[in-house]
């Protein structure tokens, strides 16, 4: 994590202990990085998806892009509320990422959505793990991430509807 993202103010939300605030900020920072990455990945797919069902997928992704951008903003503001410094510069995001970059450029709907399903697997799994940790640290942040996970899981369901067979199997 870059130095500027670990700064803590001299205050936190009333009633939250300093260590709980620091731990919460660290968890929220990783969720913010993941959502910034997801936001950019969704837009990349939107621009580069081709083939049958192109327009349906193209139009499905924009509301997801907007919602994920709003989630990112909500997390950044919570970090600031807790006394942290949300850092969203490109270099700092790359430095704090723990996963590989999305690798598909221009590609077919099925290829992109199969890869996007895997992206959602990681983001949603990590959101769920964050909820478990935040339950003991900060119930407000826990509730915020829980609400986001509900939307993210629905977005993944939308993606899976395009790559699911009639017997319920996912391609890829």
From TrEMBL:
SUPFAM superfamilies, per the entry: Ferritin-like (SSF47240)
Source superkingdom: Bacteria
Domain Ferritin/DPS: 25-164
InterPro entries: DPS_DNA-bd, DPS_DNA-bd_CS, Ferritin-like, Ferritin-like_SF, Ferritin_DPS_dom
PROSITE patterns the UniProt entry points to: DPS_1
Species of origin: Pseudoalteromonas lipolytica
Phylogenetic placement of the source organism: Bacteria, Pseudomonadati, Pseudomonadota, Gammaproteobacteria, Alteromonadales
Name of the protein in question: DNA starvation/stationary phase protection protein Dps
Family that this chain belongs to: Belongs to the Dps family.
């Amino acid at each position: 994590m870059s130095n500027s993202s670990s700064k803590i103010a001299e205050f936190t939300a009333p009633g939250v202990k300093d260590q709980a605030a620091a731990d919460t900020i660290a968890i929220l920072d990783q969720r913010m990085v993941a959502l910034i990455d997801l936001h950019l990945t969704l837009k990349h797919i939107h621009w580069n998806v081709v083939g049958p069902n192109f327009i349906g997928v193209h139009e499905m992704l924009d509301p997801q892009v907007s919602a994920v951008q709003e989630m990112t903003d909500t997390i950044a503001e919570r970090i600031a509320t807790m006394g942290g410094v949300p850092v969203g510069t490109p270099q700092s995001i790359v430095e704090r990422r723990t996963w590989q970059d999305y690798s598909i450029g221009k590609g077919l709907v099925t290829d992109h959505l199969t890869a996007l399903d895997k992206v959602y697997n990681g983001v949603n799994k990590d959101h769920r793990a964050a909820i478990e940790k935040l339950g003991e640290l900060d119930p407000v942040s826990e509730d915020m991430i829980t609400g986001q996970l509900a939307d993210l899981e629905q977005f993944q369901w939308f993606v899976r509807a395009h790559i699911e067979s009639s017997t319920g199997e996912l391609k890829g």
